[in-house]
Write a sequence for this structure.
């Protein structure tokens, strides 16, 4: 009886661990292949839907920030999340910052853009490496429509968020239509794009010089102390 109880408890623990592992496997917060100390950013499309009736970019930043931080793995990063969108007075590229040379990945580890700039390979160049279609849960977005209010170059389009006639993107595409596909009224709830501030891969590539020097000095002292103790009487 006791053995069977222990066996049952063991199986239950393994089942719970298996479920947790599958859940954690749905989100990649550190892209594979990046060396310790490397910088990067993460992008996602919201699982929840929002209207585009507010003219304040702060409202959209708060929306994506709250949605990202509702996921434990993303909240643990301790970063700020921003909306990839333009209002009539704030453009998307300024809202999120270019951070030149810092690559952008989705939550499956796929490279989206080389940075948030307008140069070749940049997020606002008109071409992405991969579509930004994974939600904060690591699942493919099924809705497809995203409020952006932005031009291809991340500017103010004349159809900004909160203007009543708002630019929409399609998250399944990698050409310019990911951000500027068509116009909508702003009152229909659809997704938003969220992007993190700059993150850094944890760990060190090499010890600090001061630490290396201390280790060498300590080793030398131990060596000579050992030789002195072995001298004949």
């Amino acid at each position: 009886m006791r053995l069977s109880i222990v066996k049952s408890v063991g199986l239950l623990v393994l089942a719970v661990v298996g479920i947790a592992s599958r859940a954690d496997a749905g989100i990649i917060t550190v892209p594979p292949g990046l060396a310790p100390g490397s910088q990067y950013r993460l992008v996602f499309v919201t699982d929840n839907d929002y209207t585009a009736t507010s003219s304040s970019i702060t409202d959209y930043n708060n929306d994506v920030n709250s949605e990202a931080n509702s996921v434990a793995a993303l909240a643990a990063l301790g970063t700020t999340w921003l909306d990839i969108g333009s209002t009539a007075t704030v453009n998307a590229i300024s809202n999120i910052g270019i951070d030149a040379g810092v690559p952008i990945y989705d939550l499956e580890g796929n490279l989206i853009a080389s940075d948030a700039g307008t140069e070749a390979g940049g997020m606002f160049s008109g071409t992405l490496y991969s579509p930004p279609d994974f939600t904060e849960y690591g699942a493919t977005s099924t809705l497809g429509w995203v409020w952006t209010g932005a031009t291809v170059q991340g500017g103010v389009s004349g159809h900004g968020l909160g203007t009543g006639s708002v630019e929409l993107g399609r998250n399944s595409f990698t050409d310019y239509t990911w951000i500027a596909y068509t116009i909508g009224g702003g009152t229909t709830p659809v997704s938003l794009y969220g992007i993190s501030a700059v993150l850094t891969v944890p760990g060190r590539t090499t010890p600090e010089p001061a630490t290396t020097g201390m280790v060498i000095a300590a080793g030398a002292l131990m060596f000579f102390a050992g030789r002195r103790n072995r001298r004949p009487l």
Q: What stands out?
A: The chain has a mean pLDDT of 84. The chain has five helices and nine strands.
